[in-house]
Amino acid sequence: GYVYSSASRLIGLELSEDFVRLQNDILHKYRLTDRIQVFHANVCTQQVLLQDTDVLIMNNVFEYFIEPSEQIGAWKFIMQTFRKRGSLLVTVPSLQESLDALQVPLPPGWVEELSLDYNVYLGRDTDPEYLRQIHLYRVF
């Protein structure tokens, strides 16, 4: 986000204190703290932040780290709170895949999936299969 965007503020939320320390060490080492902050927090405690967010990126955030019942609660919180019209949601895997696994319906009228050009060449190290796992949505 720091390198590829002009976002004035980038915020990361992380459940693991160890990973927060590691991320903050890297941010300080490479002098990236002018626009990036990483907090030790659960997304379900960040209502105001989610309500004001323009772009929310979620990369395998729940599947491997919290129990299904907690995942359901987190997804419901996100679907109720992340409502700013025109905001973008980037997910890996797709919302459908994440929610189907939990038997949680996608609320009608919440988001629309936008098409992505997966044929963009980003370099030799780019895994085209991984790119196809990235999904982009816009909040209605």
TrEMBL record:
Source organism, top-level taxon? Eukaryota
Q: What is the lineage of its organism?
A: Eukaryota, Metazoa, Chordata, Craniata, Vertebrata
Q: Sorted alphabetically, which InterPro entries does this protein's record hold?
A: Arsenite_MeTrfase-like, SAM-dependent_MTases_sf
Cite the Gene3D superfamilies for this sequence. Answer: Vaccinia Virus protein VP39
Q: Any idea what this protein is called? A: Methyltransferase type 11 domain-containing protein
